[in-house]
Amino acid sequence: IVKLSNGLEKTREQLSKHLDTLIKGHKSFDQSFWDEFEEILIMADVGYEVASNLIERLKARIQKQGLTNPEDFKAVLAEELNIIFEPKKRISAVNLPEVVLMIGVNGVGKTTTIAKLAHRAQMQGRKVLIAAGDTFRAAAIEQLELWAKRVGAGFFAKKAGSDPAAVAFEALDKAINEGYDLLFIDTAGRLQTKVNLMEELQKIYRVLEKKHPGAPHRSILVVDATTGQNALSQTKLFKEACGIDEIILTKLDGTAKGGVAVAIVMQHDIPITFIGLGEKMDDLRPFDGLEFANALLG
Ligand code: GDP
């Protein structure tokens, strides 16, 4: 079991140290307090727009609660982050097999994340099939197959260069015929033009929906926390191109940029469901906003 607080230690170290200095250095919530806090948020890779939005929310909360002492600031921040991270909707029962599209740019940890999710589902007694819908790189297909074997999931692929929509269609066929509960479909991670990306993904959506109403049940975007603001722009791109239901934020173990989680949820209103805290199949944690806020704030 991975300890969240360990995984977040870099972000926390930075944030916590600066927050302590900020709190000790101020007797009231004056302008210089907020200016300094804004700088801290920017350093944690929250981004300007989200930083000022968050500051407005915190000011309102402080005023409403009649607080004047910066010593209460961490508690207020934790409360606000918890509200920001509160899950908004839960997905209702689906007709099996549940079909999940995995989306994201190369290198963010998509393959590893599919393996982690598959492992988790297998441990919960579900029968999982993984489909190699990123047909662009032969190496990507091999890598995914290796992971499928390692976690004990089924695997479906066609040769490199095949139509990703054909892979999706045939994988779904296999999942239905062979009684799988859950199908993960990997998709190409090239940063193509938005139009190509949209066309490719929409074709996959069409063939899945036609064969199995309701599919794909979820589209999960994988983004790399170490890329900070790039993670945010990728979220925007994919959200506009194909719609995203959930986000998984990877590599939080190696970065001080954990603040990007706040930015993603505030700016795009897409829930973060899991976070990646390492390279092994167990290094995946369900995302819990309060726990995350507390881990961040130390
Ligand atoms: P893909 O190109 O998006 O499929 O990325 P991969 O799954 O191949 O991962 C790229 C690299 O990131 C590999 O070296 C993984 O081991 C590593 N990686 C993936 N997730 C995590 C994570 O949560 N933490 C750390 N530290 N490394 C990760």
Structure overview:
It is a single chain. The chain is of the alpha/beta class and 298 residues long. It has twelve helices and eight strands. The protein has an eight-stranded mixed sheet, sandwiched between helices. The longest helix is centred in the C-terminal third of the chain and has 18 residues. It is elongated, with a radius of gyration of 21 Å. It starts with a helix and ends with a helix. The structure holds guanosine-5'-diphosphate. The site of guanosine-5'-diphosphate has 18 residues, from α6.
Provide a compact summary of the structure.
With 298 residues, the protein is an alpha/beta fold. The protein has helices spanning 4-7, 9-24, 31-43, 48-64, 73-85, 110-123, 138-151, 164-177, 194-211, 229-242, 260-268, 289-297, and strands at residues 98-103, 128-131, 154-156, 182-186, 218-224, 246-250, 272-276, 284-286.
How far apart lie the N and C ends? 19 Å
Query: How many strands in all?
Result: 8
Low-confidence stretches: none
Largest β-sheet summary: 8 strands, mixed
Calculate Rg over CA atoms: 21 Å
GO molecular function, one term: GTPase activity
Main location: membrane
Domain SRP54-type proteins GTP-binding: 271-284
Binding site for GTP: 104-111, 186-190, 250-253
Q: Which structural traits does this protein have?
A:
298 residues, alpha/beta, 8-stranded mixed sheet, 12 helices, 52% helix, 13% strand, binds guanosine-5'-diphosphate
